[in-house]
Design brief:
This protein is α+β, with helices and mostly antiparallel strands. It has helices at about 40-55, 60-70, 80, 90-100, 105-115, 155-170; strands at about 5-10, 15-20, 25-30, 85, 125-130, 140-145. The termini are far apart.
Amino acid sequence: MDGLYAAMLSYKMKNYALLSDNGKVLIRGSALKSRGMEKYLRSFLSEMIQLLLEDKAGDVQNLIEEYGEKIEKHEISISQLAKTETLSDSLEAYTQKVKNKKRNPAASYELALKTGRDYRAGDQISYYVTGKVKKIRIYDNSKLLSEHNLLQPDENVAFYQAKLIELAKKFKEFLPFKVDTKKGSPGLF
């Protein structure tokens, strides 16, 4: 027992959020605060959990729509959409593993190879996804974060909106509406 809390959201074993009496949210568990998740998804998740703990689940639909619109209007900074990955293998080892079908191609490595720089295991690569449709091969449709042009945004709006919806769907049992992207669904892009 850590103490008394106003509310608790139990997502799954060892993954929960607590609301203190002063309104502060405490999140525990890797499923709820994964470092592999893009920053905009972590922000969305944190805001959604706050709403759920405050018994405002109906407001989550507005939150999803707000984030979806911001993505569409390029109002979320590219650094929030980008993913940063640490290379666990050398570029040579990666190339050999892909060639021998021991692993699938990955955007971070493919981008590192294109630069011609001498990346090593432990180096980090930040990239974002480009294109127009949500279902793409990420390693063929990505650019280094440093290549983004604010005047000609090319981030994949459909892809990032779909990731938002997929995250919200993981909490469907806590929501009073159906999270769906099919045409005709009220409000969700």
